[in-house]
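On clarity, I found the account of how folds are encoded harder to follow than it need be. Since the whole study asks how a given chain folds, the encoding of that fold should be made plain. For the editor and my fellow referees, an illustration may be useful. An entry of this sort, consisting of the sequence and the corresponding backbone structure tokens, reads as follows:

:::
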Amino acid sequence: MSTLPQNRAGLGIAFVIAGIVAISINDMLIKQLSGGYPLHEIVFLRSGIGILFSLMLVQVEGGWQILITRRPVLHTIRGLLIVVANMTYFIALAAIPLADATALFFAAPLFITVLSIPILGEKVGVMRMTAVVVGFGGVVIMQRPWADADTLDASRLVLLLPVLSALTYALNQLMTRKLGVESKASALAVYIQATFIVVSLGFYVVAGDGRFAEGVENPSIQFLFRAWVWPADGDWWVMIGLGLNAAIIGYCLSQAYRMADAATIAPFEYVGLPLAVFWGWLIFAELPVWEVWAGIALILGSGLFVFLRERQKARIIARTPVMRR
């Protein structure tokens, strides 16, 4: 059996688009539920249902033995980074528009470029670094440092949460790139969902009675520490949909990055930005203010430039003849 990585760009692009569509639906549903349920309860139910679907896929891809890994510590660290990335992002969703949070999260490729220098020892040229600076300029514009705090939709700390989410997501991606992962897509999804279940149960033990949310008006803190409640009958279908979505997201994104080069498929993740604007307008009657539109344009443009520049450099390297010794 060949140990060379797959490079099936067409399928990789299809999987990443399917995963991003599922993510946009997932974010919209979680924002809808954020006013009545605690985040750790939603995460527990979503991951508990999602892991069942993922275990079915495990059977299709090879059976229980594919869950055995030689790198349990690596998978645990990856899982915890994804948990932090998701929970900081979802906490922000309770207080700010969907498009704002999504655009700020897309600073992740910029973080990946900057952090690849000290972590991976990569060289980043002037053009890519200039694009990164422009992209972070978009992040600053969306933070509106010139505005009075009372005029903002949420506190500046909440506005920074999607940026923290982007940073932890970038660290996860860099760790994966540096250490490598030898697992099926369904197994990767199971590892992540199991981590979510363990962490959310830990939150339930510490804060499941809601004592940390008493007397608190901040919607993000309420979302994080609100007491667990039994889901309403109509919400069970939403929870099941979130669980199915979790399985689709975990499988599709893992499969996409297993099947094709990251530089080829990563730009298609930006499909999530117009989808976030669409769901915000359709479900929550939200449209971005001009600062957000400007930030989206700068982050989107710089992120795509970084991806395309990396892809161009990869092609140049591929065309360079290998000198035999």
In short: Confidence is low (pLDDT under 50) at residues 1-5, 316-325. Residues 9-106+166-288 form one domain.
